[in-house]
Amino acid sequence: MEKRDWREDYLNQVRGQIHWKRAQPVVLRELRDHLQDQRDAYLSQGMKETDAETEALRQMGDPVTVGRELNQLHRPKPAWGLLVAMTVLAAVGLALWRFLYYDGDAHSWLPLLSMGLAAGLCALTWHTDMNRLAERAYWLCPALVLGMLAMALNQRFLIAGTLYGRGRYLALLSPLAFAGTVYALRGRGWLSLALYGAAFCLLLALCWGTGNFCSVLIFVISACVMMLQAISPGKKRGWRAGILLATVLLLALAWHRFSVMERILHDGFLRQMVQAAWASSKPLGMGTPCVLSGYDFTMTPQQVMDGNFMQCDFFLTAMAYRCGWLTALTLLAAVGGFLLLCLRGALRQKTFWGRLLACAVVTPLLVQTCGHVLANFGVIVSSFELPLLSYGNTFRMIDGFLLGVLFAVLRSGSILRDVPPRLAALK
């Protein structure tokens, strides 16, 4: 008959005091290991096995008391403040669309549907067990690659050799996929570096295929930050310098690739339109009319404001012209404050897995916001939406999913552990 574990009764009593079921296996695993280490220490001092086990349990303390203390320590910690801020910003974005752009067309229900789907995705990922996901982190990259390739095969999204439409939004998940790769392959020496490079090039090629510089920029910057985290401080700093240099070169190559197209699309009419809209804006209310000249046609910024791209890529400019520049700056400050709270939560993560996931969410949101601000003040490098406020059904759902991941990390931060991924073939 198999010998009964001497720690079982003690651990069962502790388990009964821990109400959060997701915390039980994590806490009990650590407690079991601690009891085993204490027992082994007593055995090394010459104690008999039975006496060593009894003393280890006695030194640990009353199981009910220990369980209650651990229950207080390991409780889910929902980021209610962030959740409320996100809900308010999303509601404001929807209200602005409703009162400024709603024209009663047949597809007017789509924003409401996308908002509901975004909320559902956020809630679903919010309650995901991040420890279980850590054990299968290597699946994130293949899943995204398959999704984007399947989208590329759909002719409705394949235009002029690029992944059009939803493909560029799906590319916003590339940092999350790369985070899974970095985590799953950590600590495997040169094999890790080789596989990092392969995953990086594959995801970069997919982002490049979207034909949007924003996707490339977000992925490269996010990957750079994650790779710097993966390199321990004790190793040579030359690796860090090499990664930064490679990042600069990749960004330069990407900019060279997209510069011609972006300048044709943006440097002329749109730049003048943005500058004229801000110059004609009032602190509050509709701006004064102005006419753009130098083209084969003339158009007032007010007419341009009704375009879909103004609701997405030039949201701040549209708000400044339609509602006043004080309104636009207030909305920008609200988004900035929300992202700073997200960044603070990300920086407080103690585990490598938690930091990677938080980085894969916060970095893309920060890059989008910075790019959107630059574009709306005349420095147009690509098309960037403003998180939570810019109109866009798919964009809104992707944002909801990413923020759900961040909320899940913050909620379960006390029980997140760096567990070994199941990659037996590479061991």
Defining key terms:
427 residues; mainly alpha; 2 domains; two-stranded antiparallel sheet; 20 helices; 2 strands; disordered C terminus
Description of the molecule:
By secondary structure, the protein is mostly helical. The chain has two domains: 8-73, no CATH class; 80-136 and 239-426, no CATH class. The protein is 68% helix and 1% strand. The chain has 20 helices and two strands. It has helices at 8-15, 24-44, 49-60, 63-73, 80-100, 110-126, 130-135, 140-153, 166-170, 174-184, 190-208, 213-230, 238-267, 269-279, 301-304, 308-312, 315-323, 325-347, 352-376, 393-411, and strands spanning 158-159, 162-163. A two-stranded antiparallel ribbon has the order 1-2. Helix 11 packs antiparallel against helix 12 and helix 18 (325-347) packs antiparallel against helix 19. The radius of gyration is 26 Å and the shape is elongated. The model is unreliable at 155-164 and 423-427 (pLDDT under 50).
The number of distinct helices, counting runs of at least 4 residues, comes to: 20
Largest sheet: 2 strands, antiparallel
- Helix-strand string: HHHHHHHHEEHHHHHHHHHHHH
Please tally the β strands and state the result: 2
- Proportion of helical residues: 55-70%
Taking all Cα atoms into account, the compactness measure Rg is 26 Å
Uncertain segments of ≥5 residues (pLDDT<50)?
155-164, 423-427
Strand arrangement within the widest β-sheet reads 1-2
Label the structural class: mainly alpha
> What percentage of amino acids are in beta strands?
under 5%
Total tally of structural domains: 2
Shape: elongated
On the 0 to 100 scale, the average pLDDT is 76
**Distance, first to last CA:** 33 Å
